[in-house]
Each structure stands twice: as structure tokens, then as C-alpha cells.
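Blinded run. Sample ID left blank on purpose so nobody reads anything into the name before looking at the predicted structure. Input follows.
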Amino acid sequence: FMYNKIELAYDFNALEPYIDEETMRTHYGKHHTAYETNLNKALEGNEKYTEGKTLEQLLSKVNELPADIKPAVVNNGGGVLNHNLYFSILSPNPKTAPEGKLLEEINETFGSVDKLKEELNNAAVTLFGAGFAFLVKDKDGKLSIVKRSNQDSPYMDGLVPVLGIDVWEHAYYLKYKNLRPDYVKNIWNVLDWGKVEELYAEDYNI
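Blinded prediction complete.
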């Protein structure tokens, strides 16, 4: 039983000029692969904890894991999940605005899509060190913005991420150097709201 990273639905150069080919090759091909490999290595011989569980379910019950494998599962399991989300919501031909139930919920919670972007950008830019800024939903479908350091996953707190901005330096440094705000601002050019709507519409099952 293995936990896998997602297949990329686009070429490494497809998100140019906003996210460059070299970054995509390194980020997906090297970093994401390492999380996948290290997670499965850490779980070898511990199948009784993973039996029949999705990675989301495993992380939502991470405190039930033995102390010797828990850090590896948090770091690498979170790494796989966070990156699967990140790469899945980017597209060279994105739907550029949300509609339907998601849009209603955004307007109700944040006032407008622009306000949501502003708040999420702010969370991404002000996160100290490495990590992610997420738009998450709770079991009632209510939205909020959270930031998490390193590869901590919102699933650990019973929250389902529907949009995540990766602000580890490996996500942007080759192109943007120290200009994290430019990267964060540009990511909206390749953010696929259609995918975010799908994730928002999925049943809460953790």
C-alpha cells in the first residue's frame, strides 16, 4: 500500500512566465518525489496504522501514530498532501473566477473575491520561514484562511484545504529570488477556480 503524489496535468513549462520550467522540474520532480519516497519508507512495517486509510484520514488522526514515526508522517505526509493540492489547482488555462456555492460562501465570509485574495496573499507573505497559506473549509462548509509552517497539514486540525499557496523558497526562489510578494501575486494568473470549486463541493470525509 503506497501513498502517491499526483500526476501533473500539464507540462513543466506550461505555467510560464508566472512559474518557470526549472522551478517546476525541481519542485515537482525532486522535492515532491522526496516527500513521497520518505513517507512510504517511514510507513514500512507500520501497515496496521494505514490499513484502509486515505492520507487525509491518516493525517487527521496523526496523534494516534507511534512517536517514532509521527514526525516523518507529519513532514512527508503533509508534504505529499500539500503539494498534491498545490499542483492540482494550478493550470495553464485556468477558470479565472469562482461561481456558485463557493462564490456565495466567499462573499459571505470575506466580502468579495478580491478581499479573499488580499487576505490570502497577506497570510502567504507574512508567514515566517517555510510553509503554506490555505483557504480551508470546515465540516459545515464554512471558509477560513490559515497559515501553516513547514508541511503541517490543515487536516491535522479537522480542516479541509481547498486552495494552498506554497511559500517554501523552493517554490519560487529560482525565478523570484527574495521577492515572495511578486510570486504570490502572480500565482493568481494560473490559479484554476474550477478545481477549487470541485474541492469545495466534495464531501467532508475525514
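Unblinding after everyone has recorded impressions. The first strand starts at residue 131 and ends at 137.
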